[in-house]
Request: fold
Amino acid sequence: MVESDLSTIWVYLSATPLLGLTITLVAYSLAYRLYIYANSNPLLNPVLTAVILLITLLLVTETSYETYFEGGQFVHFLLGPATVALAVPLYQQCSKLRKLFIPIAIAIISGVIIGAFSSISIAWFLGASIETQLSLAPKSVTTPVAMGISEIVGGIPSLTAILVVITGIIGAVIGTKLFELMHIKDDTVKGIAMGITAHGIGTARAFQISSEMGAFSGLAMALSAFASAVILPWLLNLAGMLN
Reply:
């Protein structure tokens, strides 16, 4: 009886955009509960767990990504308002921000350049194609901006999107442990580092630690996206990687 009811619900949802929205919310809810149950273990980052659950479900049910995204796009749309909402905790740190403007600017520009060209160099060393190298350049930028940069410089936007998500998940999972190993205790410094390297997913993790860390991570994420859009195409052209 239960299996019949579940089957009926699945058939109904699969015929409407509600499918993508429903399974996304359910997957994240389950992942977040597991994360809390494990005492916020970074290895069980809810974004990573939810992604694994969704991929598994889509493969098992043979549901296409296009069908899923008809409903999943509603969650995707909320990324914009969520990013803008980061201005609230950032405003609360305005006095500290004014004092650290120059160090933050230097850190962001350095992070954009080092992050892009270190990944390009590794990809080149491993024999990756020029398209793959260019797709890697904006991997530490938030997804919409990274895809735009990738398209402009001749990369593969869809590949860039995947690399951005992987980068964010890795940063969120190992970032806090690296800070501990390096004995970095200042939430401002940790937030800026997380925002530059792990964008939105890292920022979500930063807010779980403290509002100050989250605020500066959100700032670094936004500014590094702007800096990347301005600097990367010019630097790649200067390096002779663009036609």
Q: What stands out?
A: The mean pLDDT is 81. The first helix runs from residue 2 to 14. Residues 145 and 225 are 6 Å apart (CA to CA). The radius of gyration is 19 Å.
